[in-house]
């Protein structure tokens, strides 16, 4: 199958002198609605309503853009006009719109969810303007709402990569989307998420998210991957990228086999959010170009086939997931040389079609 590839890459640059971060997925801002205008008691005039603060979803936006456009992170809507003899019903203040990327959750400081912005032009009011002065308020304009709100970004990607550092995720992303992420034999080269888009000849496309590699304890905020585990929640399916040679974080760390990697990654996801194990998952066995024979592959397939018995006899109980991924497909690949990468793309496409059909049937069933 022939297809073209492109990438929308989150740029890695300093975020100004105030915030030296290449990628922002959280932002806290102050919002205040405009004050209502005073009424005119003598003539029964009503003051104008204060402007409100709205949040609206826009494509091709990032939280970095939001930050750079307003470094003080203060948003104040305009006040309503005062009533006067020539205009008893005064004009309201203008609303102030904050454009944000899709996939934003709006939270209060206490964690309360205000709303979510998932589609283009989705919007919500985060601070109402004050009422204009009238007889109920003795014709005094009322102050607008004022509060701190938090923007929490969860990337909207069709496919989310899951893997240890140095498993070849960035190399695979480079092969699938022909971008140039930082690639190195040293773990933790990927320091921030990257979004790639695969586009087929017939116009179909899907997005893939490469996240910083997980380590044991990521669910407890250890390592770079801990900060980005939340992005897997929005992925339609998970792609496990596993190094067939196993993984060793450092010389003092134990060497993990390919099956160990699957077990421990599954446990990390389960500890972070058990519902992640209900997602459709595909296994990509990477770096097969480094194999001298089929021994390691045979051992991995045997372990996957007999995982219940092996978990019971060979693993500590604390590392045994309560549930285990049943991979819809297993693909042997070499991200470095592109071996079977076209086949992997085709499988991902079919799997996303299956996901869409399941969702459609689920909606129809719920309407009955």
Structure notes:
- Helices cover 22% and strands 23% of the residues.
- The protein has 368 residues and is an alpha/beta fold.
- The chain has two domains: 132 residues, Spo0b-associated Gtp-binding Protein, Chain: A (Distorted Sandwich); 211 residues, P-loop containing nucleotide triphosphate hydrolases (Rossmann fold, 3-Layer(aba) Sandwich), CATH 3.40.50.
- The two termini are 39 Å apart.
- The N terminus is likely disordered.
Topology:
Elements: E1 3-8, E2 26-32, E3 53-57, H1 63-69, E4 74-76, E5 96-100, E6 104-108, E7 113-117, E8 123-127, E9 146-153, E10 159-162, H2 169-177, E11 194-200, E12 205-210, H3 225-228, E13 237-243, H4 258-272, E14 280-286, H5 295-305, H6 307-314, E15 329-332, H7 341-367
Parallel strand pairs: 2-4, 3-5, 10-12, 10-13, 13-14, 14-15
Antiparallel strand pairs: 1-11, 2-9, 3-8, 6-7, 6-9, 11-12
Keywords: GTP-binding, Nucleotide-binding
Protein name: GTP-binding protein 10
GO cellular component, one term: mitochondrion
């Amino acid at each position: 199958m022939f297809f073209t590839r492109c990438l929308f890459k989150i740029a890695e640059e300093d975020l100004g002198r105030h915030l030296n971060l290449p990628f922002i997925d959280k932002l806290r801002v102050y919002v205040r609605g405009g004050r209502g205008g005073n009424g005119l008691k003598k003539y029964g005039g009503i003051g104008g309503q204060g402007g409100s603060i709205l949040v609206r979803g826009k494509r091709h936006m990032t939280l970095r853009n939001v930050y750079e456009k307003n470094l003080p992170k203060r948003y104040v809507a305009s006040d309503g006009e005062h009533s006067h003899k020539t205009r008893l019903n005064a004009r309201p203040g203008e609303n102030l719109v904050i454009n944000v990327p899709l996939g934003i959750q709006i939270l209060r400081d206490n964690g309360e969810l205000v709303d979510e912005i998932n589609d283009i032009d989705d919007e919500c009011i985060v601070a109402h303007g004050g009422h204009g002065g009238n007889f109920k308020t003795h014709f005094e304009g009322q102050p607008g709402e004022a509060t701190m709100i938090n923007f929490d970004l969860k990337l909207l990607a069709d496919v989310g990569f899951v893997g240890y550092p140095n498993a070849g995720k960035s190399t695979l992303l480079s092969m699938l989307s022909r971008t140039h992420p930082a690639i190195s034999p040293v773990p933790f080269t990927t320091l921030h998420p990257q979004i790639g888009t695969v586009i087929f000849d017939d116009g179909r496309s899907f997005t893939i998210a490469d996240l910083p590699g997980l380590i044991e304890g990521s669910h407890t905020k250890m390592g770079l991957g801990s900060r980005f585990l939340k992005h897997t929640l929005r992925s339609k399916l998970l792609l496990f990228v596993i190094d067939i040679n196993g993984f060793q974080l450092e010389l003092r760390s134990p060497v993990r086999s390919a099956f160990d990697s699957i077990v421990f990654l599954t446990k990390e996801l389960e500890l972070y959010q058990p519902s992640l194990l209900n997602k459709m998952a595909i296994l990509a066995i990477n770096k097969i170009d480094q194999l001298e024979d089929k021994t390691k592959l045979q051992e991995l397939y045997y372990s996957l086939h007999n995982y219940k018995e092996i978990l019971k006899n060979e693993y500590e109980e604390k590392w045994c997931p309560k549930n285990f991924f049943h991979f819809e497909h297993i693909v042997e690949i070499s991200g470095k040389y592109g071996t079977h990468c076209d086949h992997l793309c085709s499988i991902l496409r079919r799997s996303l079609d299956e996901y869409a059909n399941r969702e459609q049937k689920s909606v129809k069933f719920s309407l009955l």
